[in-house]
Specification:
The chain has 569 residues and is α/β, with parallel strands linked by helices. The chain is built from 19 helices and 15 strands. It folds into three domains: 219 residues, D-Maltodextrin-Binding Protein, domain 2 (3-Layer(aba) Sandwich), CATH 3.40.190; 196 residues, Periplasmic binding protein-like II (D-Maltodextrin-Binding Protein, domain 2, 3-Layer(aba) Sandwich); 73 residues. Helices cover 34% and strands 12% of the residues. The strands form five sheets. A five-stranded mixed β-sheet has the order 2-1-3-12-4. A four-stranded mixed β-sheet has the order 6-9-5-10, with helices on both faces. Strands 7-8 form a two-stranded antiparallel ribbon. It is globular and about 65 Å long.
C-alpha cells in the first residue's frame, strides 16, 4: 500500500542522468482544510466540476507498465464529480524508452503522456517536435490555481533558452526548502533469530570484520526444512541502475556515493562513482565473500521472484540492498513471530577500515520526479489542464486524494484532518488490498505521481489501516535507515542536466550496459588475478565504449554553465 521512491521513481543514471536523484519523496506544503471536497478552498477555478459532471475527456499515456481498468472507481469520480474530466489511460508495455521512440516514430501520443523525469525522455520528446509549450499556463492563478502554485524554482530550471517550458512537472515537494526525507530503504538487514543462534548480537555487526564473522557462523545453520542457510544475498536486478541497485548498500559502507548524480565533492574535487577507489574495493569484498561461499551462489542469476521466495522461506541470514526487494510483505502480513519475516532487523552500515564517511545512496530531491507532455495537436487541451490543475493543488493530503478519492468517499480521518486515516468503504478496501493488480485496478489507477507531496502529512506513514503488527516495522526501518548517513539533501551538482545531443546523452546507456556486464564478472572472479583482469577490462570498456573521459568533461562544463545560470547550493 505504500509508494516507493523508488527509485523506481526516477532512478536512472544522470550521467545518463548518471544516477537519478531520489525524488521519491520529499515535502512540505500548506496546511489542508480537511474538507470532504478537496477543492473547496481553491476558489472557482478550472478545477471546479460543472454541475452534473462533464463529458470532457483526454487520453493519458503512462510511461510505465501497469494493469489498466478505465472504469475504476477513482476515474469515475474524476469524471462525474471532480474535476469533471474523463481520464482514459494507456500503459506502456516493455521498456519505456523503446516504447517512447517507437511511438514517436509512428505518429506520437494523442493527448498527453507522463514519464518519470529523465534526460533521455526529455531529449526524445524535444526532438519529436510534437510538444506544446506550456509556460503561459503556470501564470494564470485565477483560472489554474493548482498550476500557478508550482514553486517557481522548479519552473525556472525547466525553461529552455527561449523561456519555453515543455512539460507540466509533477511529484515534487510542495515546499522545496523543507523536503520530506522519503522512503529510505537501502541498507543492511539481518535475521535477528539467526543472529541469536550464532551467539552474536547486533552490536557485533558494527564492523565489516564482525559481519564476516557472522556470515561464517550463519553458513553452518539450517533452515526449518533442513536446507543450509545462505549467509548473504541481494537482488542483482537486471532493471537496476547505478543509482538504484542493491549493491549500493555495500558501496555506501565503503564510502562510495551512488545517489544523486553518482558524484560527490571530496576535498574540493568532484569524484565520480566509477573512479572512486572504493568502488573497486567494495566489489573486491563481495568477490571474496562469494569465493568463500558466504554469498548465495545463485545471486547473479536469481530472478526477483526467486530471491523473494528464498527470503520468505527463511533461507537468507543477511541482506544488503533495498528492503522493498526482500519484500516488505514478508513482515507486514504478520502479527507476531510466526514466520521468518518477523525477525528481519535493519542494522547500521558496518564500519570499513579507512572509510571516514558513509557514501550517499539516496539524495532527497524536492524537484519534480515526473513530467507531463502535451501534444501540440490535441483537441482536449482544456480537459488536460483542468485535470492537472486539480491534481496539483498544494495540499498535504492531495496525493492521497488523487490515489483514493477525497476524504469521506472511500476513506476518512480517524482523529481529525492531517492525522491518522483509514478506509471506510469495505468493498473498496477489499479490492484495494486484495494483493491482486486486477482487483486493485478496479478501484484505483494509483496515479499519486500526478500530484505532489508534503512533509506535513504523508499517507503511508499515518495510516490507521494496518491490521497486522508487522506493518509498523516498515516505517521503523525507513526512519532508522534515513539516520544512518547514507541519505542527504540534494546539491546543485546532483541536478546538472544532460546536454542535448552531447556525449553524455549518447553514451549514458552504454555506460549502464557496461556496469551491468562487469558487475557479475567482478563478483564471480575465481581469484584475485581474474578479479584484476575483470577490473581492468571494466575500466577499458568505460573509456573505449563509454567514452568516460569525454562524458566527465562534458559534465564539468555543464555544471559550470548550470551554476552560472542557477547558482550553487
Amino acid at each position: 500500500m505504500r509508494f516507493k521512491t523508488t527509485g523506481k521513481q526516477w532512478g536512472a543514471l544522470t550521467l545518463a542522468a548518471m544516477l537519478a536523484v531520489s525524488a521519491g519523496c520529499s515535502g512540505a506544503g500548506e496546511s489542508g482544510s480537511g474538507n470532504s471536497n478537496p477543492s473547496a478552498d481553491t476558489g472557482k477555478g478550472a478545477s471546479e466540476a460543472p454541475a452534473g459532471g462533464s463529458t470532457s475527456a483526454f487520453e493519458l499515456w503512462l510511461g510505465w507498465s501497469a494493469t489498466i481498468n478505465n472504469n475504476s472507481l477513482i476515474q469515475k469520480y474524476w469524471k462525474e464529480k471532480e474535476p469533471g474530466v474523463e481520464v482514459k489511460l494507456e500503459a506502456t508495455q516493455g521498456d519505456a524508452t523503446t516504447a517512447l521512440n517507437l511511438r514517436i516514430n509512428t505518429g506520437g501520443f494523442k493527448d498527453a503522456a507522463i514519464f518519470s523525469r529523465s534526460e533521455t525522455v526529455k531529449s526524445a520528446m524535444d526532438r519529436s517536435k510534437l510538444l506544446m509549450p506550456l509556460e503561459q499556463y503556470f501564470t494564470m492563478p485565477e483560472k489554474y490555481p493548482g498550476l500557478a502554485s508550482i514553486p517557481k524554482k522548479y519552473l525556472d530550471r525547466m525553461k529552455d533558452k527561449d523561456g519555453h517550458i515543455w512539460s507540466i512537472p509533477t511529484w515534487f515537494d510542495q515546499n522545496p526548502d523543507d523536503p520530506w526525507p522519503g522512503w529510505s530503504s537501502v541498507g543492511w538487514t539481518v535475521r535477528s533469530d539467526l543472529l541469536e543462534q550464532t551467539g552474536m548480537k547486533a552490536e557485533d555487526l558494527a564492523t565489516l570484520e564482525g559481519v564476516e564473522a557472522f556470515l561464517k557462523k550463519a553458513a553452518g545453520l539450517k533452515d526449518a526444512s533442513g536446507k543450509p542457510i545462505l549467509p548473504l544475498s541481494f537482488l542483482m536486478d537486471p532493471n537496476s541502475t547505478l543509482g538504484w541497485s542493491d549493491e549500493n548498500a555495500v558501496m555506501s559502507a565503503f564510502g562510495v556515493t551512488t545517489g544523486g548524480a553518482g558524484i560527490e565533492k571530496k576535498g574540493g574535487e568532484f569524484v565520480f562513482a566509477y573512479d572512486d577507489p572504493n568502488y573497486k574495493a567494495a566489489y573486491h569484498w563481495l568477490n571474496r565473500m562469494y569465493r568463500e561461499k558466504l554469498i548465495d551462489p545463485e545471486v547473479v542469476t536469481n530472478k526477483k521472484e526467486q530471491y523473494q521466495e528464498k527470503n520468505k522461506a527463511g533461507r537468507i541470514a543477511m541482506n544488503v540492498g533495498s528492503f522493498w526487494n526482500i519484500p516488505a510483505s514478508a513482515w507486514e502480513t504478520l502479527d507476531g513471530p510466526t514466520e521468518p519475516g518477523w525477525y528481519y532487523q535493519v542494522i547500521p552500515f558496518p564500519k570499513v577500515p579507512g572509510v571516514e564517511k558513509i557514501g550517499s545512496n539516496q539524495v532527497v530531491n524536492p524537484y519534480p520526479g515526473y513530467d507531463v507532455y502535451i501534444n501540440k495537436n490535441t483537441k482536449n487541451l482544456e480537459a488536460i489542464l483542468t485535470f492537472f490543475d486539480y491534481t496539483l493543488q498544494p495540499k498535504p493530503e492531495q496525493q492521497h486524494v488523487i490515489n483514493e478519492g477525497p476524504p469521506g468517499l472511500y476513506w476518512n480521518w480517524t482523529d481529525g484532518p492531517l492525522g491518522k486515516w483509514k478506509f471506510t468503504d469495505e468493498a473498496y478496501k477489499k479490492d484495494r488490498n486484495a494483493g491482486d493488480v486486477a482487483q486493485k485496478a478496479k478501484v484505483t489507477p494509483e496515479l499519486y505521481m500526478t500530484s505532489s507531496f508534503s512533509s506535513k502529512w504523508y499517507p503511508w506513514w499515518n495510516t490507521a489501516e494496518a491490521e497486522k503488527k508487522g506493518a509498523a516495522k516498515t516505517v521503523q526501518f525507513t526512519e532508522a535507515i534515513a539516520k544512518m548517513g547514507g541519505v542527504r539533501n540534494a546539491h546543485s551538482h546532483d541536478l546538472v542536466q544532460t546536454k542535448q545531443g552531447g556525449v553524455m546523452e549518447k553514451y549514458a546507456p552504454e555506460l549502464e550496459n557496461i556496469r551491468k556486464e562487469y558487475r557479475g564478472k567482478l563478483l564471480m572472479a575465481k581469484d584475485d588475478a581474474q578479479f584484476e583482469a575483470a577490473w581492468q577490462a571494466f575500466r577499458d570498456a568505460l573509456e573505449k565504449r563509454g567514452h568516460w573521459s569525454e562524458v566527465k568533461q562534458e559534465w564539468r562544463e555543464s555544471y559550470q554553465a548550470d551554476i552560472q545560470a542557477n547558482g550553487e547550493f
